[in-house]
Amino acid sequence: MRQLPARPARLERPEDVLHEYADPQKEHDTRTEFERDRSRVLHAESFRRLQEKTQVFYGARGASYRTRLTHSMEVALIAKAIARKLGADTDLCEAIALCHDLGHPPFGHNGEAVLNDCMRDHGGFEGNAQTLRIVRCVEVKGFRYEGLNLTYATLDGVLKYKVPYAEARSLLPHEAVLQPRFASQESADLLAPAHAPKCVYDADWAFAQRVAEARGTQGRESYECRILNLADDIAYCVADLQDGLRMGFLAVSDLRLTANGGGFIDDVVRFLRQTDPSWQPSQVQAIIGSVVALLDDLLAKGEARRLPGTSRQFLRLASSKELASKLHRELVHAVTAVDGELPNLPADALAKVAVLKAVTRTQILKDPRLTTLDAAARRVVRRLFEAFANDAELLPRGVSERVGSDDYQGDEKLRLICDHVASLSDEGALRLYRRLFEPGSQGLLDFFG
Q: Alpha-carbon distance 320 to 207, whole Å?
């Protein structure tokens, strides 16, 4: 089938509302197909599990910290705003955004890298590929079929990387796949495995091709997938900056120094030049300077309006929220789309997103208070996977029965184990690790919690 021009999905187009399994709508159901998709995602167990998977600061406790669940909800709101602006279906874009992170394992990209290393010769592991697997066959909705049986338009929106695992892995440098080993695995975990190749699992590749061919999106993102990616970038770059300032990983004084050519300017420029050597310090200074100017303006307005008894801490918090709101509005408003082309941000807005993401990557994620936890997180995920692979009886009964049955062979059994480890929350993985490897750290009754 020839590739169609980039265009938003429509409920009246048969190729957008196809299902893997026949799924006639009940007479009393007044929802649209895309509203049904959204409902199925919201009711999925894997969606609820996101509330216990932290977004960036794993180990942080308290209701005010972002989780994968709150991040997905924020992305959904931004995606809906972009969809409304461009005339795309808001229910469809919301459904895609709500399920885009379902495949993330415990401890984020550290857990992803370790699971991919464990599954290196057995089909690999990657968060986006896992999301497709979850909505296609892991989630249980009922007796009629595996998975959630979402529409092709929703599935196509989840397909961010349309390349099979075997091909994606072959494109990586050999040394990036085979990490050096040390005298002990505990030492090896101090060196992070290679990032998982962006892909679709080989077992799902034929189906992914069928979806893309039906919709004419072979080899590229769908219209709604691009909206998702823009919304994800906007949410990520703004929220992580806000959280970093709030938690003390970043100070406004650091931003001000960087805007003047000092501070962490070299770190950000070096990071940006990894993908685009043309970046100049003056560009970074100007963008960070605009953020500092906006924050200073908000602080000044807050000070002028401050009521008696209002604390400065309240003003700082209010200003950070106003900053996030204004940046969101600015970036969403900047999204445009030309007929026949995918939505995008203009160069200046893309540059702002890139710089804000670089600040997060270099000044927050590389903070020793976080990086010193990374090796421990990798060790937890690796040892859990290896323990289950060596003794399936350690798995929950339902999973161990499937692993032990003749319905699954070879790599399929390891995939079931990988599914289970990936489904764990950060705290759940830690509790399980302590039960298996640190029994003295818990009382007997803790084993029944």
A: 44
HSE of 441, CA atoms in CB hemisphere, 13 A: 9
Q: What count of other Cβ atoms lies within 10 Å of the Cβ of residue 415?
A: 20
Q: How far apart are CA 141 and CA 132, in angstroms?
A: 15
Percent of the chain with pLDDT over 90: 63
CA-derived radius of gyration, the chain: 23
Q: What is the mean pLDDT of residues 270-290?
A: 95
Cα distance between residue 80 and residue 231, in whole Å: 9
How many other CB atoms are there within 10 angstroms of residue 194's CB atom? 17
Predicted confidence band of residue 446 (pLDDT cuts 50, 70, 90): low
SS3 at position 200: strand
Question: At which residue do the structure tokens 């005298």 appear?
Answer: 183
Q: Report the pLDDT averaged over residues 17-38.
A: 90
Highest mean pLDDT out of 63-77, 168-182, 198-212:
198-212
- Two structure tokens written together for 90: 């808001």
Query: Which one, of 135, 161, 126, lies nearest residue 40 by Cα?
Result: 135
Cα 275 to Cα 82, 123, 230: the distances in Å are 27, 28, 18
Q: Which two tokens stand for residue 436?
A: 């298996």
Is 18-25+33-228 assigned to CATH 1.10.10.60? no
Helices 90-99 and 68-86: crossing angle in degrees, nearest 10, is 160
Assigned token pair, 394: 């350690």
Stretch among 4-18, 177-191, 256-270, 348-362 having the lowest mean pLDDT: 177-191
Phi, psi of 266 (to 5 degrees): -65, -40
**Are residues 265 and 285 in contact, defined by beta-carbon separation less than 8 angstroms?**
yes
What b-and-e string marks burial along 372-411, b requiring 16 or more CB atoms within 10 Å of the CB?
Answer: eebbbbbbbbbbbbebbbeebebbeeebbebbeeeeeeee
Residue 173 C-alpha from the chain's centroid:
24
The answer to whether 101 and 131 have CB atoms below 8 angstroms apart is: yes
The C-alpha angle 91, 96, 99, rounded to 5 degrees, equals: 125
Task: Return the structure tokens found at 336.
Answer: 């445009």
Residue range(s) in the chain whose domain bears CATH number 1.10.3210.10: 18-25+33-228
